[in-house]
Design a protein that fits this description.
The chain is an alpha/beta fold and about 80 residues long. The chain contains two helices and three strands. It has a three-stranded parallel sheet with strand order 1-2-3, covered by helices on one side.
Length: about 80
Amino acid sequence: MVVHIAGIRRALNVIIAMEQSGVNRGIFVNTTGVFSKFRSASEEYEIIESKMVERLRNNDIKFAIIRPSMIYGNEKDKEDCFE
């Protein structure tokens, strides 16, 4: 199994390496940017993720994609925490 956390832009290379080495399971930590309202940000991620899923399915690689998001507490999140 591969757990990929190095960023979505490197994921296709990781998938190719998985195919070549016979690894058949993977967890990919992708970005919530695919859901961005800013098309310039989300379009690239959507294209990459679409290619990822297609390649994974075509090679019978079982996979999960998780998209962690930032969770903010209160108004002090913007302050320097090392005061």
